[in-house]
Design goal:
The complex is a heterodimer of chains A (459) and B (687).
Chain A lengths: L1 H27 L41 E8 L1 H4 L3 H16 L6 E8 L5 H11 L2 E3 L10 H6 L4 E2 L28 H11 L7 E6 L2 H16 L4 E7 L8 H9 L4 E5 L2 H13 L6 E3 L7 H7 L2 H4 L2 E4 L13 H13 L7 H18 L6 H9 L24 E2 L1 E5 L2 E4 L10 E2 L28
Parallel strand pairs in A: 1-2, 1-3, 3-4, 5-6, 5-7, 7-8, 8-9
Antiparallel strand pairs in A: 9-11, 10-13, 11-12
Helix pairs in contact in A: 3-12, 3-13, 8-9, 9-10, 13-14
Chain B lengths: L1 H31 L6 H18 L4 H25 L7 H22 L18 E3 L2 E3 L1 H23 L1 H11 L1 H6 L4 H23 L7 H6 L2 H9 L5 H21 L7 H17 L21 H21 L2 H7 L2 H18 L6 H15 L7 H22 L2 H19 L13 E2 L7 H24 L1 H11 L1 H6 L4 H27 L1 E2 L6 H14 L5 H20 L4 H13 L8 H9 L6 H16 L5 H19 L23 H13 L1
Antiparallel strand pairs in B: 1-2, 3-4
Classes of the chains: A alpha/beta (459), B mainly alpha (687).
Chain lengths: 459, 687
């Protein structure tokens, strides 16, 4: 009888929580910019991209996953582990919109969700290999585990984002938001912070990272970049990935070393607490790089008033900020499309990235006479000024090993994120020739030769 | 000097938090003899409840505090005492440990289910609007000051309570000798209740005090208290003032390391591992306890037979063959982990089941095996497995060093500390032969997934045979002797030192082998595969399975890599439920300390008579599956249904008799029979 009591208690508690949950969800509505009313969504165009989706008479294709009426496309996500449905939502909204317009040359897009649940990337990639035409608009934290399988079955990939060194910039992949292989993506951002905005912070940069082999590489890369831009890293700290019981010692160490600026490579939940500790001990930093993982209302809510005294910036690497959606028709269109096809889902940075991937795929596939993997990949690689219909700053996709030219930054304030005064010179972005090419020896992404294949195998 | 002072003050304020938490830990341990691994989890639940009341429902802070500390926490403590802890009072130390670990995982799973981890839950510190206090160059916030004051008040209050009040003295008396306490009018149940209520209140207090300074996350909050464990160990889990001092030492160590450690790629990890290292060192410096003399009454399990193990091994191979021929490619990767997991489980059977030594670091040892294979076996040469076994065995022997002096809960903590040092410092080092870049590539011996899986199954079967042979031989008998009574074993000439080192090395070798095979199946390994936290469910399941039964290794593998995946595949929403289930099963341990596997074997014994029809049905289903007439679920559920049906058929019918009348009512409720005399005498002798 006793286990039953525990079971009942559980039900009672979940009942309460469900109510608590809705209030929290209401607050999140803040992500959506203005223009909540369901505006008319253009039928076939996306921003500046004309006829992305539409009816057509496609030539028959014998590529895997393609029939006369459908294209099966794999979408990777960790939703079973992280409970973050952004990739699934983006796939749903884009494909429903696209299919309503008539699909890609008359073929409907069928998104197949591959939930890697963090650890099962290789299994899901094996499934994708068996059925899908391509992998589009997804991400998985441990995506490096699936690259070998993917290359072996010659499956092209257009990921929304990619995290592991083995995966990012690998063969048969076009990163619709830039791979910048061998370059630091944030060189322009750091250069602005160190040289223009806060020159006094130049020799007093601190780096704090969550403890894992992945972040250790990032620490080395960022330290090198700061050096290359003429600055100096004065303090490096690591915190255990499972968390810290008190951030004060770290804050004190930074005060002690007179650190003026901070790059935080870790969980933004922890960063919010570190900022509060810094404020408590009365140490005010010139700037903090929160990384764009923190870009969202949750970070602002957690960090609260500490953001007033600790200027926190994030580089969106050229993605137009959501707060200013009203100024940018493409961003507004994403919001409108979500309003129409998934009104309860949240629009955030990963969603915009996924949209960039979907648009690139749809455009590249639409331009193919006969739909083949080779054709789609080659079309995508022809984009030298990819703006995703205006969602982002132009980007050269023809070479994964090219530095990003344009960037933009946002600042977190207690009232939310807003564009920073970073000296935009090209619309909402700043385009210039600041780059940092890595000199250190870092692991390289996987190539076709590594699995005994070559581009000639691509059909 | 300025710097030294500053970091000292910062360290003290951190230490205050640890002091509150560790005092609760010490209290429950001294009065109930149970080291509560779920202490932090109770604090976590309190922190979430506090957030729910203040942030979620907008109650004023004082009311919310009173509700959580004076109503919810005591109720929760009573509930735990009544439902979970009281049944385990009489069982062994391992089972008690498992119950609290199960409670820990269960509470984390429950909290993550109830409170969506992706929603930010800001909690403001106490007196957040007041200016921080300046003490020379350092500052202390009001919240930190409150924490320190509360810690001091708690320490003094507890001391006064335990030594000055009747209930407190009764509680201490109960620890020393329950029967003597009872003779003098004490009530152990009341004492235990008081201990759990107070302990949970202190955990809740600690949780609420710590929650504003860290993100509100179920797993983090529950596991942060490793530092508090270290503090509690300073007082040998018994002395409150020492635990208080220990908390300040741990806090200051962490603080000074942050301030003074040189900056390079390897040393910052030292700060992360510091509490675990301290814990390890303090345990090593422990005064040597006398060899325990009391003979523990352990249930004597039937010695496994070679013939039975051969049959078991054959069944394993058939099972693997069915999996290898019927599963799809991705499923082979997923379910192929059953066998390596079983091997890691088997290493716990040898260590904990046979010799009574507790180790929470078995998965970390498996990680070492996997790393060694990734390096030495990069060419796929099976001979490199020897290196894997050798290296893991040596590391295992190193862990045995503290084991020579420690046992029970102290050993569990020492091995947990070892696992934390590995995953906090060693595994994350940017060294090429570790996980540099986030993961290490592993070359399997056999390129084909299915062949590799069969190989893992064969290794498991061979290891089961080896383990049974050892168990039946001289070494096995010595292990059992050591488990039952170290003193008796030593008196009779058994060399404890050699035996302990040998069994640790053996079990580490098995775990390392399991880790290498795990890596081969996964092809790519990350440090996350081998953390202390991922190792806890394995330990739990082995003990649930029955720690002395060889089959519980396989039980662990099937549950962890088989049934759990199958459940989430069938009902994708059941993810939370399945992790909660492990916790619930562990909590149920108190009622069935002998474990599931022996019970399972007993109830399935009759089926042996019907093995031909069973083999026929399973074989037929397998054939149908191979011909693609039925799908995998039909095969799986069909085979299980056939087995259950045959068991029902084969079950010996109990003869219906009136003998069900309880002994004391014989001759009253029904006429006295001549045979009753014997039964009553027998019953009296047993009571």
């Amino acid at each position: 009888m006793r286990p039953l009591i525990i079971g009942l208690l559980l039900v009672a508690l979940t009942g309460c929580a469900a109510r608590g949950g809705t209030t929290a969800a209401d607050d999140e509505g803040g992500t959506r910019g203005g223009g909540g009313t369901s505006a008319a969504v253009p039928k076939t165009d996306f921003g500046t991209l004309k006829n992305v989706c539409g009816p057509g008479e496609a030539k028959p294709s014998d590529a895997q996953g393609v029939t006369d009426t459908e294209i099966k496309v794999g979408v990777f996500t960790d939703v079973g582990f992280t409970k973050k449905p952004d990739m699934v939502d983006a796939a749903k909204v884009f494909t429903e919109w696209c299919n309503a317009a008539g699909g890609v040359n008359g073929r409907k897009l069928v998104p197949v969700t591959h939930d890697a649940k963090l650890m099962e990337v290789r299994q899901r990639m094996t499934e994708a290999c068996a059925d899908d035409f391509a992998v589009v608009g997804g991400s998985a934290a441990l995506d490096g585990q699936g690259v070998e399988t993917r290359l072996k079955c010659m499956l092209p990939e257009f990921p929304a984002q990619s995290s592991q060194v083995q995966a990012r910039g690998a063969d048969l992949q076009v990163m619709p938001n830039g791979a910048s292989l061998g370059y630091n993506d944030y060189a322009g951002f750091y250069s602005w912070l160190l040289k223009e905005k806060y020159p006094s912070s130049k020799d007093a940069v601190g780096v704090i990272a969550g403890d894992s082999p992945v972040t250790k590489i990032m620490v080395a890369q960022h330290t090198e970049t700061i050096g290359g831009l003429g600055g100096k890293v004065a303090y490096t700290g690591l915190y255990p990935a499972r968390g810290v019981s008190d951030w004060t010692p770290y804050a004190q160490a930074m005060k002690d070393k007179n650190v003026k600026a901070l790059m935080f490579l870790g969980d933004w939940n922890q960063l919010a607490k570190l900022l509060q500790s810094l404020t408590n001990i009365g140490h005010k930093l010139d700037w903090i790089d929160t990384t764009n993982n923190a870009y969202g209302p949750q970070f602002v809510k957690l960090a609260g008033a500490a953001l007033e005294s600790q200027p926190s910036y994030a580089d969106l690497s050229g993605m137009h900020p959501l707060e200013k959606a009203a100024d940018n028709p493409a961003t507004q269109q994403v919001l409108d499309m979500f309003e129409r096809y998934a009104p309860d889902a949240e629009v955030n940075l990963p969603v915009l990235r996924a949209f960039s991937a979907w648009l690139l795929f749809a455009k590249s596939a639409g331009a193919c006479d006969e739909l083949t993997r080779k054709c789609v990949l080659e079309n995508a690689q022809k984009e030298t000024e990819w703006t995703a219909g205006g969602l982002r700053a132009p980007l050269d996709l023809s070479d994964p090993a090219s530095p990003p030219r344009c960037w933009n930054a946002v600042q977190a304030t207690p009232d939310g994120w807003k564009p920073a005064d970073f000296g935009a010179d090209d619309g909402a972005y700043r385009c210039e020739e600041v780059e940092h090419r890595y000199t250190g020896d870092y692991p390289a992404p996987l190539k076709l030769e590594d699995v005994g294949k070559s581009m000639a195998d691509l059909q | 000097m300025d710097k030294f002072l500053t970091f000292g003050i910062v360290g003290l304020s951190t230490g205050g938090i640890y002091a509150v938490i560790s005092s609760g830990l010490v209290l429950t341990y001294t009065t109930t003899g149970i080291f509560n691994f779920a202490h932090g989890a109770a604090g976590m639940m309190a922190a979430f409840a506090y957030w729910q009341l203040t942030g979620g429902w907008g109650l004023p802070v004082p009311i919310a505090l009173a509700l959580v500390l004076l109503v919810l926490a005591p109720l929760f403590g009573l509930l735990i005492e009544r439902l979970i802890m009281r049944p385990v009072q009489g069982v062994g130390e391992v089972e008690r440990l498992v119950v609290t670990i199960a409670l820990l995982t269960g509470l984390i799973a429950m909290a993550q289910w109830i409170w969506d981890p992706n929603v930010a839950r800001p909690l403001s510190p106490f007196f957040a609007d007041r200016e921080a206090i300046r003490i020379g160059p350092a500052t202390m916030t009001w919240h930190q000051l409150v924490t320190l004051l509360v810690a001091a008040a708690v320490a003094l209050g507890l001391y006064a309570f335990l030594y000055g009040s009747r209930l407190g003295v009764g509680m201490r008396a109960t620890v020393d000798d329950p029967s003597l306490a009872r003779l003098n009018g004490g009530d152990p149940v009341v004492a235990a209740k008081a201990a759990w209520v107070l302990g949970t209140m202190l955990a809740a207090l600690g949780g609420i005090l710590i929650a504003p300074s860290i993100p509100l996350d179920a797993a983090n909050l529950s596991l942060l208290i490793v530092s508090a464990y270290a503090a509690a160990i300073f007082g040998r889990l018994r002395s409150l003032p020492m635990a208080f001092a220990g908390a300040l030492v741990v806090g200051c160590t962490e603080s000074y390391l942050t301030g003074y450690l040189p900056q390079n790629e390897y040393l910052p990890g030292l700060r992360i591992a510091a509490p675990a290292l301290l814990l390890f060192v303090v345990l090593l410096l422990f005064p040597n306890p006398r060899v325990r003399g009391s003979v523990r009454i352990t249930r004597s399990l039937p010695t496994p037979t070679i013939r039975g193990t051969l049959v078991f091994g054959a069944c394993l191979l058939v099972f693997a063959a069915i999996l290898a021929t019927t599963l799809s490619d991705p499923d082979v990767i997923t379910y192929g982990q059953i066998f390596p997991m079983s091997i890691i489980g088997l290493s716990i059977v040898v260590l904990t089941g046979f010799s009574g030594q507790i180790s929470l670091a078995q998965l970390s040892l498996a990680g070492i095996g996997a790393v060694v294979w990734a390096g030495a076996g990069a060419s796929g040469n099976p001979l490199a497995l020897l290196a894997v076994v050798a290296v893991s065995a040596v590391v295992g022997a190193v862990i045995a060093i503290p084991a020579l002096r420690l046992s029970g809960i102290y050993l569990a903590l020492a091995t947990a500390a070892f696992a934390l040092i590995l995953d906090g410092w060693i595994f994350t080092m940017p060294v090429d032969w570790l996980f540099s870049g986030g993961s290490a590539e592993v070359t399997p011996i056999f390129a084909g997934q299915r062949v590799q899986m069969m190989f893992a199954a064969a290794v498991l079967a061979a290891l089961c045979l080896l383990v049974v042979a050892l168990r039946r031989g001289f070494f096995g008998r010595r292990l059992i002797a050591m488990r039952d009574s170290e003193a008796a074993c030593a008196t009779l000439g058994g060399r404890l030192l050699v035996t302990k080192v040998a069994v640790f090395a053996l079990s580490a070798g098995i775990a390392g082998l399991g880790g290498a095979l795990f890596g081969m199946q996964a092809r790519s390994i990350t440090p996350d595969h081998f953390t202390l936290v991922s190792g806890l469910p394995i330990f739990l399941l082995v003990i649930i399975g029955g720690m002395a039964a060889v089959g519980s290794g396989f039980f662990t593998g099937v549950n962890l890599a088989g049934i759990m995946h199958a459940i989430t595949a069938l009902w994708p929403g059941a993810h939370h439920a399945s992790s909660l289930l492990v916790g619930l099963a562990g909590i149920g341990m108190g009622r069935h300390p002998e474990g599931v596997v022996p019970h399972f074997r007993e109830s399935w014994d009759p089926v042996r008579r019907f093995w031909i029809p069973l083999a026929g049905i399973v074989g037929a289903l397998w054939g149908l599956r191979l011909l693609d007439v039925v799908n995998g679920w039909v095969l799986a559920f069909g085979a299980v249904a056939a087995a259950v049906a045959l068991r029902e058929l084969a079950r010996p019918r109990a003869p219906k008799s009136v003998a069900d009348v309880p002994l004391e009512w014989r001759g009253v409720r029904r006429p006295w029979l001549p045979a009753d005399r014997e039964e009553v005498l027998d019953g009296l002798a047993r009571s």
